[in-house]
Give the backbone structure.
Amino acid sequence: MKSSSYSTTPPQRSLKRASGIKRCPIVVVSWLAALAIFSLIVLVSRTPSAAEHTRADKIVKVKNQIIQSSRDGHVIVECKLDTPHDTSAPAHGILHITVHRSISPLASDAFLNMIKSEHFNGCYLFRVVKRFIVQWGIEAPHSDGQQAKVKFDKVGIDPPVTGQSLLNVRGSLNFAGGNSGTGQVYVNINNNPHLDKEPGSLPFAMLDDKSMDIISSVFDGYSAGMGQVKAVKQGADEVKKLFPKMSRIEKCWIV
C-alpha cells in the first residue's frame, strides 16, 4: 500500500507542476498582450490620427465661421463729431455706431457703402429737433465750389424680424424718409414709436449711451426752416456766418 501510494503521488505532483509550468507562460503572454493593447489605446488617444486632425480642423473652422458671422452681423462704425465754428461748444467726440447687418442687410449695406465712399465726411447736422431727431447727410460743395450731386440707389425694405428688428427708440439710426436714396440719416433722441408705423425701413443701427450724450449736447436752438439746408449746400463759409453753432461729422470709418 505504501508503494502504491508512493507510486501514484509523484505523478500527481508532477502533473500539477507541469500544469503550472504550462499555464505560467500563457498568463504572462496574456498579461503582456493586455498591456500592449492598453498602451496602444493610450497612444491612439493621445496622438490623433490624420482623420481626427481633420475633424479638429473642421471644428476650428466652423467656430471661426460662427465668430466671423457674428462680427459680420454687428459691424462697428465710428464717426468723429465736432462743432468747428464754435470751439466752446460741448458737442464733440467719437460716435460709436453698431450696425445690425444680420437683421437689416439691405439698409446696413447701403449705409456701409456710404461710409466707404466717405459720403458723410464733412456733413453738417443740419436738422436738430428738440426731443425728436438729429439728421445729417447733405454733402457740402466740392473744393472747386461745384455743388455735390450725389445719388444713391433706393434699396429694398428689409422685412421685419419678430423680436429682433430695431424700432425708433432713443439711439436708433435710420434713413430719412425710410429709404437710402436720400443719402441722409437721422438718430432718434427720444423714443418715437409713431415713426415705426411710417412706410419705409426700420432702424438698422444703434448708438451707445456715450455717443448719445454727445448727440444730446448738439446745439438745438436753430428752428426748422431757417435756411440750414441752403447754407449747407453753399458751403462751410455760409454755415459759419449764419449757423456757427452747427455741428458736423468730420469723418466716419468702419472699425
Helices lie at 2-46, 50-73, 105-116, 209-216, 228-234, 236-242. The longest helix spans residues 2-46. The two ends are 107 Å apart (CA to CA). The CA atoms of residues 227 and 242 lie 9 Å apart.
